Protein 1
Amino acid sequence: MADLESFAHLDFGRGDRRGYPEAVYCAGKTTAQLSAIAAAIRERDVPTLFTRAEPEQAQAILASLPDARHEPQARLLAWPATPPPPSGGLVVVAAAGTSDLPVAREAQLTARYLGRACELVVDVGVAGLHRILERLELLRRAKVVVVVAGMDGALPSVVAGLIAVPVVAVPTSVGYGASFGGLAPLLAMLNACAPGVAVVNIDNGYGAGHLAAQIAAA
Amino acid sequence: MADLESFAHLDFGRGDRRGYPEAVYCAGKTTAQLSAIAAAIRERDVPTLFTRAEPEQAQAILASLPDARHEPQARLLAWPATPPPPSGGLVVVAAAGTSDLPVAREAQLTARYLGRACELVVDVGVAGLHRILERLELLRRAKVVVVVAGMDGALPSVVAGLIAVPVVAVPTSVGYGASFGGLAPLLAMLNACAPGVAVVNIDNGYGAGHLAAQIAAA
Amino acid sequence: MADLESFAHLDFGRGDRRGYPEAVYCAGKTTAQLSAIAAAIRERDVPTLFTRAEPEQAQAILASLPDARHEPQARLLAWPATPPPPSGGLVVVAAAGTSDLPVAREAQLTARYLGRACELVVDVGVAGLHRILERLELLRRAKVVVVVAGMDGALPSVVAGLIAVPVVAVPTSVGYGASFGGLAPLLAMLNACAPGVAVVNIDNGYGAGHLAAQIAAA
Amino acid sequence: MADLESFAHLDFGRGDRRGYPEAVYCAGKTTAQLSAIAAAIRERDVPTLFTRAEPEQAQAILASLPDARHEPQARLLAWPATPPPPSGGLVVVAAAGTSDLPVAREAQLTARYLGRACELVVDVGVAGLHRILERLELLRRAKVVVVVAGMDGALPSVVAGLIAVPVVAVPTSVGYGASFGGLAPLLAMLNACAPGVAVVNIDNGYGAGHLAAQIAAA
Amino acid sequence: MADLESFAHLDFGRGDRRGYPEAVYCAGKTTAQLSAIAAAIRERDVPTLFTRAEPEQAQAILASLPDARHEPQARLLAWPATPPPPSGGLVVVAAAGTSDLPVAREAQLTARYLGRACELVVDVGVAGLHRILERLELLRRAKVVVVVAGMDGALPSVVAGLIAVPVVAVPTSVGYGASFGGLAPLLAMLNACAPGVAVVNIDNGYGAGHLAAQIAAA
Amino acid sequence: MADLESFAHLDFGRGDRRGYPEAVYCAGKTTAQLSAIAAAIRERDVPTLFTRAEPEQAQAILASLPDARHEPQARLLAWPATPPPPSGGLVVVAAAGTSDLPVAREAQLTARYLGRACELVVDVGVAGLHRILERLELLRRAKVVVVVAGMDGALPSVVAGLIAVPVVAVPTSVGYGASFGGLAPLLAMLNACAPGVAVVNIDNGYGAGHLAAQIAAA
Amino acid sequence: MADLESFAHLDFGRGDRRGYPEAVYCAGKTTAQLSAIAAAIRERDVPTLFTRAEPEQAQAILASLPDARHEPQARLLAWPATPPPPSGGLVVVAAAGTSDLPVAREAQLTARYLGRACELVVDVGVAGLHRILERLELLRRAKVVVVVAGMDGALPSVVAGLIAVPVVAVPTSVGYGASFGGLAPLLAMLNACAPGVAVVNIDNGYGAGHLAAQIAAA
Amino acid sequence: MADLESFAHLDFGRGDRRGYPEAVYCAGKTTAQLSAIAAAIRERDVPTLFTRAEPEQAQAILASLPDARHEPQARLLAWPATPPPPSGGLVVVAAAGTSDLPVAREAQLTARYLGRACELVVDVGVAGLHRILERLELLRRAKVVVVVAGMDGALPSVVAGLIAVPVVAVPTSVGYGASFGGLAPLLAMLNACAPGVAVVNIDNGYGAGHLAAQIAAA
């Protein structure tokens, strides 16, 4: 097994300082590195989320933490598998289209493992306004709404105009051509014509869920 | 007066071929050039729109065509001043915000001078959905709707989802920062999640009005 | 089979409202999701186009809708397989080069399944002007012309200068280097020096065909 | 005075729905339009913020609302001049450099007029870490911290690593060359290596203050 | 007068090596610097072109070289004023629109002062194909054709398809919005679908004229 | 075999008009299409270059034209295999690095098949100036020099400063990171500080060879 | 006079820690702020450089520090006026063109006020290689060479290939069109084909001079 | 074996002139070319680094130079395997995250093979400031610090503010979405708010190590 000190400097006290689980960003790490990190986490008993884990990486983590929960669609692993009991306000995650679901699920699970209750609504894009308007009652119960959308990135503006709480907007790389890998919805969300829209990186479901959990903290 | 042949090759037969007035793009032309062009137009009696005319340029044109109509907000001059009687279907122009009005008026006047009836609704951006929903009856009477919006460029997607006819989307340079001079709404409109959206250049009210007039032709 | 409600909110009434078949954008959807969607479509008997279907996705759809028509080159499936009888005006699709054919076919089939007669001409790029000039009679019979071009994106300007009806311009990602994935023809088309050019997203044959069908509706 | 209905559709009920003052974005509006809007606001007695008001625009507004508060540095006017009594949690605004002050003040005033207590710290950029570390006690009392920075946009990542509450990051156009008008700090903030960072548009002090006020609401 | 050695290292032998006049790029130079350079040129009797000279800069040059020729539209000064007798093949400069004329004139004068005969045709954009087709006989007499165009940049592709000699394509910043300062025609020209197109920098009439003169050299 | 008329409109008279072989751009064409095109070319006996042919595409072409010459490194096929006897002036192709060789070879072969003598020098980048200076005698014998370079794209400026004839500059996608697929050398070449530099598309060896052959024609 | 604490947090101990004068970036600061900062600097006797000072800003600084040195071309003020005696190795600044001189002078003065001997050579661009080759002896005496260039940004690659010490490359915004405000030379320098090239921001003469002084420190 | 002269012009005297080993950039070279180059290197006994070698390329090199050292993580081969004895000052390489390790190792090994002592610290990103602050003593012993970071690229600004010697900043492509392949940290580093930051290309560990070795030379 790789020597942990030679490639990582884990921040095991971070949970104490901020009240949330440690996160390990898997992209660019070797399976040997992830195995060593997972073993150290088990040894020190640190609640952890592993993000952007490809299948082979997930296998390496599960070898050290076999009781972790693995959600392949969201590329996420959580250890321990059971999230904390919900506290704070409700988080609602709204995904514009079915293809935005992996990112939306990553946001939902992150918020849940950081301690919030979290509901997910899917396929409520603005091309059929009745779909989002039908969920207005749920949206208005939330302490914060995460909106996940690719293509035109129009949904956050519409939702922010309908509710009084913050919207966390997540552009996705869903789309093609002049989407330019999510640039189109990113710029649209940064220029949202309604105030109250907080933008995170393209496809960053983890960051959105984390931010929402912080906003909805008691 | 400048010698017309040395800098322009006017296409006086174009009205015959396409059924619409000649257009002269004023940006980058000297006042001497515009005077000579206006004089030639008067002499040959060719209905003409002058687009993107700055005040000094407009004065040069009006010196040769004093009975032209000048709309400074839209930077447009029309000669003769009276538009043709309306034919074809109704064009509706919807502007997301007050700051989009100059471009919206350019579109409206162009469509009108190309022979269509044209109505204008303003300040119907998606941050307050009730504003556009209140105009649904009017929108559904149109043969084509021109939607003018800056910032997030979200309005065309919403409108296209509500009606059965084409939407001509005009991004504007209204906004700042990550609008990047209109790039944000341009990309959003090209990625509209509802089909039936035709995009033109940033701030191109003339092009939008022309296209709408063609679509709504009898 | 996946639970439809958990990932999609199909808009089965849309055909009624807009008069056109439902469309399912396949990119980013799992085969399980597409199977469930296809089964629901069959059950509710909703005419549907499936766009951007990769071979494996097409197989999943055909498993539920074996009598659908599948055009692999255009990545399109249509159900039912028979298009409606033609109504409205003629749509002509012109592709600049052979490599633009997949997008052109997607446009043609879409227009046809939305109820228009539609003819296709191929390899009529501006490097050999006689090729497009030879088809002038056909172009002038159209109610709208879809022009598909990559590289310099020059064909829509030329066509729009020759006819009196709208041109729907589709930039393609055909090319390399400074094409930047279709950015070059996209910008060229947005800056077309002839009025009457409506631009859609790069490689968006479906959107172009849909818009053309709306413009050419009776 | 201009006819209000012809260019604006004010949303006087918005304060009721969301609990915050109306906002009027002044850029691109004529002084005649702003005079008419200000008069209507006085007549209906609607608390309002005017953002991005250039001096001449501010004069037009003050002519109708002479008792408004005008902060030229922040390009902001507030009417009525007295903010509501503070409620909810503390907002802290931290500006990396002196040149970021106009945007930071816009954020501070907005948060204050939306009902939050708000403190401002200036010139605490990361090139001298002791400056931000000296303010740690204040930062840790906040319910949300707004961080305003141009150039490398590094301050939000550092602050987010030091506190447990959300950071609202505002990139500014302060800088030159490869700042590309604020693109550099915008991208840096979207890629913040610490979670809990919410990004708004370049120079968007109003949006940041609004979002912070929502997050810190009771 | 400024001390020449402290800011410039003139290359007075260049004319000998390459057979063409020296060129001084005026942008960014002070009037004092230009005066000193012009005086040195007169003293050493070096034929020179001054490019991109603003009016105040031109005055400084003319103070030292009063018999120079100044063409304000092209921002060019030539000394001595009389060009060499024509040698080599014919250069034709074709400008798509009237607004492209300053760049086209810069190209024409440069080619002429480098020793070529040079003819100019204007306003022959592709929106009216008959305009360029009418000049085919002239174009086919050229040894090289310089094509100057903004907006869609389509003219070089069309011209290159009609003739057998090289086309030097000059994109211009004529246009607005998605022209992005000439990026649109620049990319279009780099992707010209006809071979034989040589591209130079946006608005670089001097470079185009120089290149054309080299290509048409005997 | 596919029906040629349904996807291509070959321009068999082009060789007559311009004096050069037909070219078929293979990217994006199916092997069935290429087979049909190759068969038509054999039948009509039209000298042809096939560019950007991947191995599978080359096999399809060779099946119809087994006596064609195939240069895999340059992705080029030529039919007939024997180039015409050299006429006109000498073309020299200079490649900055070994990795630029495929593009340089494409340029060299193209120039040769269009009838010019053509010499190739490799690995003469500006980091070791003596390498290009050692080849000065050869460069000065050329009628035109094609310079192929990635990374900083500095070689064309240096070469153009050393010779009196045109330089055709070909940026390549060799490099990584801030090369952005060849954007860096493309922009550098467009901004060459020496006049006489003609730029073509990134990796466009064919276009460079064609242009050079035209410039060096007798 | 403005209250210093409300807008700045001067780092008067920085000189001690790093051994170099304090720097005040003037862009975006009001004259009142600069007056207050200059007064505090005089009071505490802190050697300081003021960078990017426009004329009006320089007047405000000189009112408090009348014995400062002001170099308008470089937009720089230094207080005290006398630089420290030279120590460490020689810095050479090489500017490609006369128009790059303001940035080159900013670099030279900065290096000098940080304690290095510094020589400047101007107008040694690669279009005339003999100009830089003539200065080789001087370049080879340097401990570090700052190379300032706009347009193609080719000079750093050439210089780095000729010497054994580091090159600090400063792209400038000199140029037009596809220079895109200095993006072209910036990218070229980042892709320099010779190792040993350190890049700083566009037009950042101060940063280059500072870095060079650090590298050449004893 | 391929004929070396036909594709490479090795600069075997370079080590003499600059005192450092030759470098061969492997990307884009065939295995046959690399074999021939490696054989020539052995024959002439030239110390060499092979950079960006993919596994198959490394095999080809090792076939000719079996005693070379191969570090797959850094994609580097060094021949001879033993680095020179350390001279000059200490180089420290600091990597923000574990995923930046391959680039950091490339820098470390390069500096070592150019003759410097070099220490590596990993996972010291700014989200946990204590990690970098704990290494302050080591950082302050260095003659130059190489900082390797992706995402927000904030670490170089923080480090440069803590030490008195130059920082060589290496942006990496670690990250996703709005990182745009490393553009985000590249721009952040170019805009570093602390002076003394030298930027190299994205992922350019070799260039950073080389530059650091030059700066730390005795």
Note: The beta strands of chain A are 22-25, 48-51, 69-71, 76-79, 91-95, 118-122, 144-149, 167-171, 197-199.
Protein 2
Amino acid sequence: MTNPVIVEVTRGSLVESQHRGALVAVDGDGKVVFSIGDIDAPTFPRSACKAMQALPLMESGAADAYGFGDKELALACSSHNGEDAHVALAAAMLARAGRGVETLECGAHWSSSQKVLIHQARTMDKPTALHNNCSGKHAGFICACCHRGIDPNGYVGYDHPLQAEIRGVMESLTGAVLGHDNCGTDGCSIPTYAVPLRGLAHGFAKMATGNGLEPLRAKASRRLFDACMAEPFYVAGTGRACTALMEAAPGRIFAKTGAEGVFCAAIPEQGIAIAVKCDDGHSRASEAMVAAALSRFFGKDDPIRASLAAMATIEMHNWNGIHVGDIRATAAPTA
Amino acid sequence: MTNPVIVEVTRGSLVESQHRGALVAVDGDGKVVFSIGDIDAPTFPRSACKAMQALPLMESGAADAYGFGDKELALACSSHNGEDAHVALAAAMLARAGRGVETLECGAHWSSSQKVLIHQARTMDKPTALHNNCSGKHAGFICACCHRGIDPNGYVGYDHPLQAEIRGVMESLTGAVLGHDNCGTDGCSIPTYAVPLRGLAHGFAKMATGNGLEPLRAKASRRLFDACMAEPFYVAGTGRACTALMEAAPGRIFAKTGAEGVFCAAIPEQGIAIAVKCDDGHSRASEAMVAAALSRFFGKDDPIRASLAAMATIEMHNWNGIHVGDIRATAAPTA
């Protein structure tokens, strides 16, 4: 099927570009609350599922053993900007396991935030793996290995015990069978598995509610969500959508983006989770859509609804500050 | 109508994202050689029509009066990277008209090229209007005004004599009626007019062939195309698609990108022009499609065909250099 237009980009009085995609909101039992488009199409969650991938860090006892608090747990679930505080905390997490940057297998890159990149260019020769947006997740991976005496060498590989464990966690949460057939390699070199969008949302709804989860996993899931909601800067950073969505509703919204137009979110108090995939992979569309969808779960007089609705229509200004058009969610369903 | 998928983005063995769009190739008489999708949909050409907007600079005699050669003319048609050579040449063009950066009305921005941005961050406090990707075009605008004794103040405005002249040039070339109803404001603050994609391609085919043009305009058009093909670095810069396409076929291909997934190109020796619009505005798709479409006009044994085909399938490598997927044109028609 052809997914509907979910976001329009206007210029003057005309629509200049448009984004198609799918969206689904489910409850803890997997019941679809609302949906748009093909919610059963295989979708690579990319970084949107980092909180799922962080479960071994919690369930192994490594996080407690190394004394990790909300900031460290949020960073383990993050795609961060590479700001100084992110980099320092990733290094500190590794140090707790007696490791350093040399153990990271995620590769190095400059920040994708222009403001941070300018700062980086002025303060360092080149980035290290600690600056990689995934360094917190990888530090968590390494800690999960080291705490259990597993050699972290090669921890990004499909056959490494850690990735096998994560594969099992994600199969259990999403209900999808994962293997080489639906596996790709992510930007940070770990496996990423295409799963139906509906299953991805259901996995997050299970994490938000604990429905159907063993007590250890339910507790670990809740603690990761609480950490991200308590420290949204460490999930992304300055000017980023994940951070802004969680700051708009402190302690009430969990939100995590993934590359190629994926966004996952949950409202734990309502037992709801949402997954979005923009067909063309553009984050401006997934960001607007997830904000529009989340807004419907807050009452008409709740200022959170207005804050989220404002994020669903983004004014575009040119280099002289002139308002030239908007990015606006067009297909947000009524809850 | 719903445009077809023109570009797929793969990861592993799966399609992760896809881009829809329209494409048309026409000859100098406006006859459609081939097309994909809705080629009559109003489309903002954005920066893809800069060579059209540079015609007053030529036709007024300003370019000759100020002694502009290929590099200056290419820069007048450019969306440049803000590299040092681009910035210096824009300043030199303004100086020929006795003007400086203060006359530019395009606004300032850092380079969108990561490599150039790092260099800029290390060598200057903040960018000026000379670093704006449109500064060469704007320098050309100002020169066209000053040579004729027209006050350049407010030259970006819809009602300024220069913009009225450009409006007339574009109406004549594209066959579209332009006015407030199909006008938006571009990133650099000048008016941009939505025209049917077919008309945009026809305008470039007229410029490439001279068909139906007065001798002055035919000569000016040919000189601008020749300048861009002779100095492709000044049309875009290091690592950019416009530059790479023109370098792949020296003196035989003219190519110019525009924001929001537009690409225009011409093969003057064959009297053909092409226009592409990716529905969702992503340049990775318009770049792959224009390369695929251009490749079909070169013989099976011509190395240019292979060079262009290679640009129509771009390998994506992650931070560790692992080949994770491809961006590939899927709907390239046979010429």
Note: The mean pLDDT of chain A is 97.
